[in-house]
Amino acid sequence: MPPLGCTSCGLKRFFTMLDTDGDKKITFDELKNGLHMFGFTEDNVKQFLDKLDVNKDGTVTYDEYKKVFEIEENQDKDSESDKRTQILLQLFKKLDANHDGKINQEEWDKGMKSMQICEKFSAKLRNYLDVSCDGVITKQEFMVGLGMVEDPIDWRKVFEALDKDKSGDISVEELKAVFDDLGIPILSSGIVEWITQYDTNKDGKLDYSEFLAFAKAQESRAE
Fold it and tell me: What pTM did the predictor assign?
């Protein structure tokens, strides 16, 4: 069973995190790296892959992945969801070494290393969960990111975190800095093109209402 609630959005999120090379398929190595932190042994992963890999080609497509769990969704849904939630809450507690309700960079790296999680998957998962881009993962971000709850993301907080100079707008430079921090190569011209799609007042920046329009569009695509 996947370590998150069986919602279509949660399933898609977790598939994306497992698919570290972004080729729309999950290999054995990707599955092993992703599930190791949840206590899966190599034999467990092999059995899991065999169950998911409907056409037996050694990889799992999203359609295969989704089909299996939509079938299982009706079997003891509430009790299984509770079990997965407890597993993930225990994982959060383990990673939150100083018990302040947040996982900082040092705690995350140390926890992932202790569980022998590969750096590539660890970094991708951390960046995905840190919705506010403030360098720490809150319990709410952790729960929402892994599909444990369906609470909406607080886009106001995300906007404020991105608006480094507190001007009330997000500039090209501020967005470029975020991508640079995440290690994602992107040209400033690419960011300008992205901003232009939602910059209704044509000032070259995104105010909160413009940013929210973009954020809601992305939420709709993920559903």
Answer: 0.45
Residue 171 confidence (pLDDT) above 70: yes
Whole-number Å distance between alpha carbons of 111 and 115: 6
Quote the pLDDT of residue 72. 46
**Cβ contacts of 149-154, under 8 Å, gap ≥ 24:** 149/5, 150/7, 150/9, 153/215, 153/219
| Phi and psi torsions of 208, nearest 5° | -65, -40
Question: Which tokens go with 93?
Answer: 């507690």
What angle (nearest 5°) sits at the alpha carbon of residue 131, between those of residues 1 and 3? 10
Task: Kindly provide the b/e burial profile for residues 165-201, where b requires at least 16 CB atoms within 10 angstroms of the residue's own CB.
Answer: eeeebbbbebbbebeeebeeeeeeeebeeebeebbee
More confident residue, 214 or 23: 23
User: What are the CA-CA distances from residue 33 to residues 40, 72, 75, 109, 120 (Å)?
Assistant: 10, 23, 27, 15, 10
Question: Does the pLDDT at position 103 exceed 90?
Answer: yes
Q: Which two tokens stand for residue 202?
A: 């044509």
Domains in the chain, CATH or no CATH each = 8-69 (1.10.238.10), 77-146 (1.10.238.10), 155-220 (1.10.238.10)
Sign of CA dihedral 132, 133, 134, 139: positive
